[in-house]
Structures are given as structure tokens and as C-alpha cells.
Amino acid sequence: MKRSTLLEKQIKSKLREFFEPLGSTRYFVEVKPRGHEFSAKIWVEAEILDEIAKNPEKLTYISDTIREVEKEFKTIIFGRLKPLL
Fold it and tell me: Is the pTM of this model over 0.90?
């Protein structure tokens, strides 16, 4: 299995615990190679994204989750949140 696919699955499973209590059942994670590093895009419903933007603690949780996966896989991941249209 590709490393990007493993990273994608790991980030998605860790974020499931975060997004479900917020009422989000639709979110997608895409991880692509970027040189020797990776780029992660996380699409989430616009209402949930607005809620995350208003609360710095929630944004910090997402960043910390990505950092956890980075440490676990000894790599660098650049993460971005995007609205799900």
C-alpha cells in the first residue's frame, strides 16, 4: 500500500473522533506526495468549518492530530482545511 494512502487512512481515523461529536459525518481526507513530504487536504462541511474557525482549540486539535501522524510515520505533512461543496 502506498505511504500516502496509509497516512490518509491514519489521519481520517484519528479525526473521526473529532468530527462525529460536531455532527459531521461527511468529511474527506486526501494525502498526496510533495517531494519528500506530503500534502493533506481535509474537506469538511461548511457549517463545521465555520465552527472550527471560531474556536482556536478545535483548529489546534486538527493540527495536533496531523503532527501525531507525522511523528508516527517520521515525515512532514502540510495540512489544509477546505469547505465541502
Answer: no
